[in-house]
Specification:
Length: 739
């Protein structure tokens, strides 16, 4: 019976609350509308949500008309009383709807006279859509309508938000299930009680059970007793210790055959960081197992990749040598080493490293002819033999194809691994007349390619035989350089885009050797790192940079900061933090003016130890920057969890930002990501006004590069600062800086 003014409002509300309290989802919405239409004596009520927020278009999630649940409606809010609702939070017109809103054709068609509506909002205050009641007659009691709508709006909002989230979750789960069902290898998930909570279609097909028959069961319910015990023991170990486990086992296939398989398992985490369960894959290696048994007897193939091993390689090279001596002609030998493979092994585990090597082997094999041979020597080294290829240009064509294949990202456990290689090339008969000499010379050429930074190739040349002596000479001179004061620092200014002022300088190490002349940092810094000399050299760099910055402060450049690069070996050296603190104290420099630059690889190696060191440095007040960002791991995790202040965009991305859309997009993404995380951004290698303008448009904070200034010795740095009129009073004190 309709509610009238003389009815007890409290009793009516109590009845409505009881009517909707236990309902959820669509049942709640329809129940609420039923009670509202009855209580307010109106013909229509609906709850709607946005389908297109910008276009102001909504669709009803529940609609009641003339005492019945009605088909959903979709309509535009513009020109309707609902528009007023989403703009003003609440709107009511007891009568005259069609007069006040002549463009509301839906209201006219329904014969609406009275209207009251309230906006439903999410937890953040964003409008989800309107809750409205409509009547063909003037509203009997608009105050009562407002009271009821306000009372139930919060619950309706929460339920609408919950149902949207639930729908999104269902869609996501459906997408993930479709995704893993498309994977041909069996995949399964278990909870922390080691019960199956999901699997893909490949597992159903493999064991002959449906997903419903698998979920909720343990391995003992669906596997043989002996195999189940082994499987369960591995699961217990994983749940206790985490990590990755791969092991061989057997299973009964749906066709009744016993298959040799490899289980690969790891744990997944809950949102609170605890271990939530296990995810595993099954790789059927029945055929490979049979092949491996024969291979082990022959001892000619590599077990991981299935490629020829060193023994078979030498045999094939010997055959080619015999053929070449009889018939003439030549052949090429490529020695390939995967760059930075140890970093993948250390960070992602040996199982992932094995996947990477297998993928690399496959890509090399797909890049060569059937008559060619690719062999794995061990670890991350491969050799390719190219019969009938005796000219450099022919070899280069093959090398470029291999490099192109390797440059495509390799996805391992959801990580995009970018793989490069250093390749050395020797050609018969020019570079050797025996298998040993050819392989040795190709190996020497490979190491030369690696010295140039990897991701490239080098041909063998006779001068490589002098490498060892040259390296010894360089190392001897390097050991003397510090005590003989042959090192010096140059400084490259950093320009703040917003202020147009020089905000700091980066200290860059230079070596002026009496015997060797100016030695490139690319030549001596890797050697210093390898020999450990980088530790005392790095301390000298830090002390000298701080002293010269202190001198600049005394000249009036009090806001300048100095950035100092820190190598991996320096960073890991015991007492590094204590050394930094001691230098700052001895020089008397406020730590906030010192910034230490580290590469992504430095902090990702032994990340927990690195995190502790970084926190100590931050506690001192030192700023921390990631140098060459985008060329290494580029992990969002360390940006979130490590106390980083600044990202430096690598010059390789800056170089072509005005002409290469990919580099421009990368630069834009890095700047946006940094600002979201409250990090400053420095762009390196700015060489043109166009690059500067582009970076300024991205709101990059700081730039450095030849367009601003080249690296300068201290005296020239001061002249540069004076020329920019930063402080002309400093000119008389020019001599106080080191030359």
């Amino acid at each position: 019976m309709p509610l009238r003014k003389n009815h007890n409002l409290k009793e009516t509300l109590h009845e409505m609350v009881l009517g909707v309290s236990v309902a959820v989802g669509d049942q709640f919405f329809h129940s609420l509308l039923e009670h509202l239409t009855r209580a307010l004596d109106v013909e229509y009520a609906f709850i709607a949500e946005y389908t297109d927020r910008e276009a102001m278009r909504v669709k009803t999630v529940a609609f009641r008309a003339d005492g019945q649940e009605a088909e959903p409606l979709e309509f535009d809010l513009v020109g309707t009383p609902c528009e007023r609702v989403v703009l003003d939070a609440y709107y009511c017109t007891p009568e005259g709807v069609c007069t006040l809103f002549p463009l509301d054709h839906l209201a006219m068609a329904m014969g609406v006279e009275g209207y009251a509506g309230i906006a439903l909002t999410d937890a953040a205050g964003n409008v989800l859509g309107p809750l409205a009641v409509l009547s063909r007659r003037p509203l009997g009691d608009s105050e009562l309508a407002e009271t009821m709508l306000r009372i139930f709006a919060a619950r309706a909002s929460a339920e609408l938000e919950r149902t949207k989230a639930e729908q999104a979750r269902r869609e996501q789960l459906h997408f993930l299930q479709v995704l893993i069902d498309s994977i041909p290898h069996p995949i399964f998930y278990k909870d922390a009680d080691r019960r199956y909570i999901g699997c893909n279609a490949a597992l159903e097909s493999f064991i002959g059970r449906t997903r419903e028959e698998i979920i909720g069961k343990t391995v003992f319910d669906i596997g043989a007793e002996g195999r189940a015990r082994i499987c369960d023991a591995v699961d217990r170990k994983l749940l206790a210790n985490g990590g990755v486990e791969s092991y061989d086992s057997t299973m009964i296939h749906t066709d009744g055959s016993i298959r040799d398989i490899i289980f690969s398992k790891t744990v997944f985490g809950n949102t609170d960081g605890s271990i939530g369960g296990i995810v595993g894959t099954i790789l059927d290696i029945t055929e490979r197992k049979r092949a491996e048994e024969a291979i082990q007897q022959l001892a000619y193939f590599d077990a991981l990749t299935g490629l020829p091993n060193r023994t078979l390689l030498r045999d094939r090279v010997s055959q080619l040598l015999s053929q070449a001596r009889r018939e003439g002609g030549g052949f090429g030998v490529l020695h390939l080493d995967v760059d930075r493979f140890k970093g993948v092994n250390d960070s992602l585990g040996h199982a992932c490293g094995d996947v990477l090597l297998s993928t690399v082997a496959g890509r090399i094999a797909s890049s060569i002819r059937e008559s060619d041979t690719v062999a794995r020597l061990g670890s991350d080294e491969f050799v390719v033999i190219l019969p009938g290829v005796g000219h450099e240009e022919d070899v280069v064509a093959v090398v470029r194809k291999i490099v192109e294949e390797l440059n495509r990202p390799i996805v391992i456990q959801g990580n995009d691994i970018f793989c490069t290689a250093s390749i050395g090339i020797a050609i018969y008969p020019t570079d050797g007349s025996s298998a040993d000499i050819l392989l040795k010379n190709a190996d020497m050429a490979m190491h030369k390619a690696k010295e140039f930074g990897g991701d490239g190739y080098q041909f063998y040349s006779s001068e490589l035989n002098h490498r060892a002596m040259e390296r010894l000479t360089l190392e001897t001179s390097l050991r003397r350089a510090l005590e003989r004061r042959e090192f010096l620092l140059h400084y490259q200014p950093l320009l703040g885009i917003g202020s147009g002022r020089i905000v700091g300088v980066e200290a860059l190490l230079r070596w002026d050797s009496p015997e060797l002349g100016m030695v490139s940092p690319a030549r001596f810094i890797p050697l210093a790192e390898e020999t450990g000399l980088i530790v005392p050299i790095g301390e000298w760099v830090l002390r000298s940079a701080c002293e010269q910055l202190r001198a600049l402060h005394e000249l009036g450049y009090t806001e300048l900061c100095v950035s100092v690069n820190v190598s991996a070996r320096q960073f890991r050296h015991d007492g590094f933090c204590a050394m930094v603190a001691a230098v700052l104290a001895a020089v008397g420099l406020d730590p906030r003016y010192l910034e230490l630059e580290l590469t992504e690889s430095v902090i990702m190696e032994r990340s927990e130890t690195a995190k502790g060191i970084l926190r100590k440095l931050k506690q001192m007040g030192v700023s921390l920057a990631i140098d060459d960002f985008g060329t290494g791991y580029s992990s969002l995790s360390y940006l979130k969890h490590f106390p980083i202040d600044r990202l430096k965009i690598d010059r390789t991305f800056v170089k072509e930002v005005t002409v290469d859309q990919d580099n421009a997009a990368i630069a834009e993404a890095i700047v946006a990501l940094a600002h979201v995380l409250n990090l400053d951004v420095v762009a390196e290698g700015v060489e043109t006004a166009e690059q500067l303008a582009f970076l300024a448009a991205l709101r990059c904070d700081v730039v450095q590069g030849y367009h601003i200034a080249r690296p300068l010795p201290p005296r020239n740095l001061l002249e540069f600062l004076e020329a920019r009129q930063e402080d002309r009073a400093a000119r008389p004190m020019l001599r106080s800086l080191q030359p």
